[in-house]
Write the structure tokens for this entry.
Amino acid sequence: MRIPAHSVCTAIRDDIVSGVFERGSRLTEEQLARRYGVSRVPVREALRTLESEGFVLTRRHAGAHVAEPTEQEAADLLDMRALLEPLGAARAAQRRTDAHLKVLCGLVRLGQERARRGQGEDLRSLGGWFHETLAQASGSPPLTALLTQLRHKIAWMYAVEQPERPVEAWAEHGAIVDAVARGDAERARALTALHAERSMSLHRLKRPERGRVRVSQHVVNTTSARN
């Protein structure tokens, strides 16, 4: 079975984001091919993609390594998201489909319910799905791709605390969806900008631990693999 490079890329990226491969650690084609049970060809392609995304750095005479972003680069990620998420919300107000709106409304209902019950771990996942769906509703594949990449990098660089008042946070989500539903692009933009600004204080920069690659076997998604 031939495993597509994008599946290998996703597996490596997930392991970088979760800290299985620490910042600065070396990544060899042999090591990765053995870890994911694939040939070196999709690994090579995946490393090129990850280098273009900023997760991997290829050093002359030293091969591929996990990148080591500076604190300033990490701060820039939050600033970039604060600029792009409001744009995505404004576009969503103009271009969203009924299907997008249905999913967004469903996520807000679930989020508000879980917030009232104090189910923090559920809220973390629901928040990610909410922002992913809002980006998709923008109807702009390039913008969606940028926001997705930013979310991956922010998860890599930051630990995110739960807000002290999760019910209020999900009320903000509900207000954004209401503006999107009414096609009010400027209100959707303004509400999302305020939400992004408030969420910045919840981000704590991760301090990478030096040492070794943690042992955990990542299962590569073979759904789209071809014989």
